[in-house]
Request: fold
Amino acid sequence: MKTLKLSVLILVFTIANSFAQSLPEMVKYDFKFDWLAAHTINQNINVGTESVHGIGYCRLFVKNKTTGNEDQIQPTGFKYIGNYGRVFEVPRNAGMKVSNGNIKSLMNTKVRFQFEPAKYGYKTMKELEDNAYFKIVYEIKVYKPINDEIVGKQEVIVFLKDAKVPAVTLNQAKNTTNIPTRPGYMRFNKAKYNLGIVYSIVPVN
Reply:
């Protein structure tokens, strides 16, 4: 009798684990560049008269198990700006004035990525999470009359297993002064500039 109960428990656990690892028909994620956090290394320097502009990119890639290629997933209901997956841009002639400790809102809308995992040969979420990733790039420049000053260009890879980065509030964005680059945050340090880009990636049920 005990053996039968144990067998039933093992079967229930196996079924539950199978459901936990099974894939939904459609996988969906929302991406957004949320904030520009404008800090400075030397707090006595006032950069309020300087204008920051930049370009942000986000692309989603999935390894196709049938072909062996990496396929790019196009956004749903959103058209890239130009080439290379550009989703956001602050033009040079419309840069944002920044000052010490100032936070600027970036994108107003989210970019939706969705695809059917089965079409790429996947049966479990764990397997998919290790073979699909976001490539996120942001470049920041400071306006100069002749040649703009490049603060930096960051590129990060975020696999789906780490793509659970909720949006932060304005107050939370203000507390990013000393944190390193990590999922959800890109840090730019050059000379007097200490800037950060805060982004979010949210799975959609």
Q: What stands out?
A: The longest helix spans residues 2-21. Helices lie at 2-21, 125-129, 170-174. The chain has three helices and twelve strands. The chain has a mean pLDDT of 83.
